[in-house]
Specification:
The chain is 25% helix and 25% strand. The chain has 64 residues and is of the alpha+beta class. A hairpin with a 6-residue loop joins strand 2 and strand 3 (27-30).
């Protein structure tokens, strides 16, 4: 089973923009949707690999 991450993305005229839903403060861009996905993969590696200090994350909280 391949790991996955939820993303939010949109096309803004000539650029594709998006972010990893777990890290909504870190937006990246690409010249195509495929290019954007490559940038998002790189961003995920940087954010989960400890290369970016003091990152903010988004998560779900289970309410009892």
């Amino acid at each position: 089973m391949n790991p996955s991450a939820s993303i939010t993305y949109w096309n803004d005229d000539e650029l594709w923009l998006g972010f990893l839903d777990e890290f909504p403060d870190y937006v990246t861009q690409g010249t195509s949707f495929e290019d954007l996905k490559e940038h998002l993969l790189d961003l995920h590696k940087e954010l989960t690999g400890g290369l970016v200090p003091n990152i903010k994350r988004h998560a779900q909280l289970e309410l009892a």
